[in-house]
Amino acid sequence: MEPTSILKAIKHCLPKKSGSPIPLHHASFCGKEWEYDKKCLDTGWVSSVGKYVDELEDPLQAIELAKRQKNFERFFFASTSEVYAGSLEHMPIQIPTPENVPIALTNLEHPRTSYMLSKIYEEAMCHHSNLPFTIVRPHSIYGPRMGMAHVLPKLIMKARELPQGARFEVASVGHRRAFCFIDDAVEILGCLASNPKASGGTLNLGNQEQETSIGEVAHIVLEATDRTDLQVVPLPETPGSPARRCPDMARTINLIGCRPMLGLKEGIQRTCKWYTDNVFLGGGVSAI
């Protein structure tokens, strides 16, 4: 069942007044890889207009549910680091990037822009909801159960499947990201949710100390999967992907006194082990 359908079902099943003090909204349609695929949009397999309407209806349903909570304290919304993409493209903005930079748009014709637009609009919904809220903008969160559409599980799968001495082709090797392990991200989210001072704020979520290139991530994956026989071969850059993205975490850390702890190499090793044990060796556990 799609996230919006689940929310509609929950809406009719919950009593008029339930007791969740801090509802968290994390779902998104447009973050899926196929939502970026222009071929899907062109062939009509995905109705871009219909999906976009659903994408906007989803947080409206969540906000309505939040208003029905008798012990309600604050609405907690997960946006995305993608909202900075237009600013990175059009302005000489600071990197690591603070939350108060002006927001600009990328080319509206690019399929990837739909995701950014949906999150910007949903952030605006929070501001106009007449509810106390906290917005977080996650940056490159990774770890077990992250699906198979993101760069890290794709690299892990490729490293496992290629024959001895093959070309390990990697796109955008020079692009840089600040990766944050899921355990650290959850810890920060918990601290923000329990801190009333986060109300009304928009805060970055990530690990600016672990910024690295996609090429370096590929090499760490090869080490973690014991496939150093493979040769990393650069491919062209991914269209629409920012060359560099890194959050300024000062505001978040100053607010909660909590910072990410796990190093990138150990985090990738843990992720590789989980996917190997639970997905690739037929353990039957879902990757998502």
Name the descriptors.
13% strand; Rossmann fold; 4-stranded parallel beta sheet; 288 residues
What sequence of helices (H) and strands (E) makes up the elements? Answer: HEHHEHHEEHEEEHEEHEEHH
Distance between the termini: 14 Å
Can you tell me the CATH superfamily?
Answer: NAD(P)-binding Rossmann-like Domain
Strand tally:
11
Gyration radius over CA: 20 Å
CATH topology, what is it called? Rossmann fold
Uncertain parts = 1-14, 38-53
Helix content: 40-55%
What is the CATH class name? Alpha Beta
Summarize model confidence as the mean pLDDT.
Answer: 83
Provide structural commentary:
This protein has 288 residues and is an alpha/beta fold. It has a single domain, classed as NAD(P)-binding Rossmann-like Domain (Rossmann fold). 40% of the residues lie in helices and 13% in strands. The strands form four sheets. The protein has a four-stranded parallel β-sheet with strand order 1-2-3-8, sandwiched between helices. Strands 9-6-11 form a three-stranded mixed β-sheet. Helix 3 runs parallel beside helix 5 (113-127) and helix 6 (151-161) crosses helix 10 (264-280).
